[in-house]
Amino acid sequence: MSSTTVNSGDERSGMRPVAPDASGSRKVLQPAWVRIVHWVNAVAIVIMIMSGWQIYNASPLFPFAFPRSITLGGWLAGALLWHFAAMWLLMVNGLVYLVLGFATGRFRRKLLPLSARGVIGDTKAALTGKLSHDDLSTYNQIQKLLYGGIIVVGILIVLSGLSIWKPVQLQYLTALFGGYDIARYVHFACMALIVGFLIVHVALALLVPKSLRAMIIGR
Ligand code: HEM
Question: How far is the CA of 77 from the centre of ligand 1 (A)?
């Protein structure tokens, strides 16, 4: 890593870097509740995506189907069982994350401030190898954008899913999406965004192993 590393997100948020305390042990970077909801969410999302692909295959929106080997459930009815079971896990866990994220001030502290200039600056720094990962206690502008964005996509995929699950009982919600058919496309687009996010997210977690360690053991 270059000695001229920058992390404009850190400067803007004004948080102090993580330093070993007197006993030599480092501060908690990811509190236990964040780690628990994060990993429960990861399991729920993977089940939702793989069973969702099997459900999609029964009535494809586009001229392609997902390979059977990467789907879950075996057939339509089996996939629906997995999808509806993991749906509750995803929704309850997601609600806990949203409530605690707002109530503890985590969203404000970790995801704000966010600006177009900051994102462009940190993207340039990342592309030239100057984006620092030394201080894991604050997210850079790209992380803030991606994490904030994926939270919004997570809310959208649940709402569009509810509106195609119960289009009669939740007709006002379905109407908000422009009807059942459009809600299906929205649901699919959100899935594609989450899969794209996951590929980048997991690659970066593996490239910066100490961030993965913090998401597992907290420090
Ligand atoms: C399954 C593999 C996954 C791995 C290995 C992984 C890894 C990580 C790591 C290491 C962090 C801390 C990142 C950092 O310091 O920048 C993190 C944070 C985060 N991850 Fe994941 N993740 C996974 C799945 C997911 C999924 C499926 C989602 C959502 C669709 C997700 C959403 C997030 C969010 C929103 C944060 C920020 C959490 C916060 O600070 O409140 N992750 N992840």
Answer: 30
